């Protein structure tokens, strides 16, 4: 950007203009309105992103809100940021989330999730998210989705479950059924047994965990073509067959060893293709610490530029990383070991 453009931006910062588009009514150095609009748009696209400040163990909540609101998916706008809801809790919550969305994209004074907690305290006092105790980002995301009936309404996520049965000791698997869930949750849970006790040195691709396969030893009675079948084994395969948004959840809690997290190295890919939909990595949440305590922070993309967001650093102001290549060069090892939530849209 040339010096003249930098001077314009310095004037905006100096005057603390909350919305740079107010400059539309001003002519500076006889510059055309078209030039001013171009610079305003450039400044808005690349610089106008703020972050939530830490507010007493709020990192788990702050990271989820930043990942949802910096680049909101279409259904997020439709179901969560849309204030046309059927009860006062949803309306008030949606209004506050809209307020936070505007704050994130306006680069104004610093703010926190304190008011959001107050709303939870009034309408959902039994929730763990009303207190200042440490909590889990994954649980908070599910809590938000449950409030707004995500997974009940159609959000564009379609899941397929195929089932086979087998009579022991025969080798033949009989196909039993196909179940299609057209209102599936956008959160894909990676199976804990698919990642636990794997090599600590090998890197695993996250796309390798987007299918769940299981075999159960059960006495299973089912009907197929009006006939009753008895099986001793059941095989299932579950996968996503359509999606416009996906949050992949990696379990790091080790139920077999309270002293050691699961540190299997899982690396993201920039794009995931599900049927015709090509989804792009938009943000990552990592957790550093032990199984009992720690800290969440996030990597977030905004207009093809990646930022490090940490609510306890620089009052939550995101710091510049660069493009996707720069992200991998600087933080791939940290993400591979500590990544817990990966957002694709």
List the helices and strands and how they pair.
Layout: H1 3-15, H2 33-47, H3 59-69, H4 74-80, H5 88-104, H6 114-123, H7 137-147, E1 158-166, E2 174-181, E3 187-189, E4 203-205, E5 211-224, E6 227-242, E7 246-249, E8 265-267, E9 271-274, E10 277-289, E11 294-302, E12 305-309, E13 319-322, H8 324-338, E14 339-344
Parallel strand pairs: 3-7, 4-8
Antiparallel strand pairs: 1-2, 1-6, 5-6, 7-14, 9-10, 10-11, 10-14, 11-12, 12-13
Helix pairs in contact: 3-7, 5-6
Overall description:
The protein has 345 residues and is α+β, with helices and mostly antiparallel strands. It has a domain at 1-47. 29% of the residues lie in helices and 29% in strands. It has helices spanning 3-15, 33-47, 59-69, 74-80, 88-104, 114-123, 137-147, 324-338, and strands at 158-166, 174-181, 187-189, 203-205, 211-224, 227-242, 246-249, 265-267, 271-274, 277-289, 294-302, 305-309, 319-322, 339-344. The strands form three sheets. Strands 3, 7, 9, 10, 11, 12, 13 and 14 form an eight-stranded mixed sheet that branches. A four-stranded antiparallel sheet has the order 2-1-6-5, with no helix packed on it. The chain has a two-stranded parallel ribbon with strand order 4-8. A hairpin with a 7-residue loop joins strand 1 (158-166) and strand 2. Residues 1-5 and 11-40 have low confidence and may be disordered.
